[in-house]
Amino acid sequence: MTPSIDTPAVNNDNGSNASPAFLDTQPGSDFNWKISLKDKVIAITGANRGIGLALAQVCLANEAAAIFSLDIFEPGEEFAALQKANPQRLSYIRCDVTSEESVNSAIDAVVTARGAIHGFIANAGMTKHQPAFDFSRAQIDQLFNLNVFGAFFCATAVARKFIELGIKGSIVFTASMTSYRPNRAAPSAPYGATKAAVRNMTHTMAMEWAKHGIRVNSISPGFIKTAMTYFVDQAPDWDLKMQYYGGMPRLADPKELGGAYVYLLSDSASYTTGIDIPVAGIVGAW
């Protein structure tokens, strides 16, 4: 639920008592500071499986009114089970995030179905781990088209919708610890570059859209156990690498990321924008 607003009048340079736009983001004195997604409509790209599906589960557990998965793949059994356990609260809309037209159509469908959209997780992405010399131009293009251009199209489309609807919404990107430093366990120069681009977009978009009350942040996961990373802890030198890394020597359950996303999507994060939160058990990609 959007917090009530107490906006003090100030005397601007032109002598008027109009309130500057940035003051409109302040929560009122009666704001409920419980961290919750109650009454919020959240869209998550790539939520039919993996990290996205886990984030949907955590958002539902934190009282989100509705979660929409925007995904190019058809839902599987795990999605169907979560949907059955949360009737009328989890939906799927086919969306190709690399297509601006598809993204705009999906966001319009969310608003048509629920009358609003309050939060957006730009999570869809892919990775490929191999030496830099082995990457073809086509492989690099595929990584950037999905991880960077797709994230950009989603963020700009939903921000325009927030402004159109007068909603002070929240956008959260899924970045990566590889945006900070190389992943020694599974190196990928192009993938790390795409996630570094996502983190930079986070800061710049947060700066540009703060005047609209739109917050933009990112999460940088470390080693997360998904279908794309199943092989990481199967490497014969995994234990040795973990001794080198220190920290928590394991892959995380994707749901362990959820708390950070819920916070950033919630109204309790009303003064949090332009940051990245590493969720990496210290290990991450150090």
TrEMBL record:
Where are the residues of the annotated region Disordered?
A: 1-22
Database matches in SUPFAM superfamilies: NAD(P)-binding Rossmann-fold domains
Among InterPro entries, the record links this protein to: NAD(P)-bd_dom_sf, SDR_fam
Bias type Polar residues, positions:
1-19
State whether keyword Oxidoreductase applies.
Answer: yes
**Molecular functions (GO terms):** oxidoreductase activity, acting on NAD(P)H, oxygen as acceptor; oxidoreductase activity, acting on the CH-OH group of donors, NAD or NADP as acceptor
Pfam families tied to this protein: adh_short_C2
Q: Which UniProt keywords apply?
A: NADP, Oxidoreductase
User: Is NADP one of the keywords?
Assistant: yes
Q: Which family is it part of? A: Belongs to the short-chain dehydrogenases/reductases (SDR) family.
**Protein name in the entry:** Short-chain dehydrogenase
Q: What is the organism of origin for this protein?
A: Talaromyces pinophilus
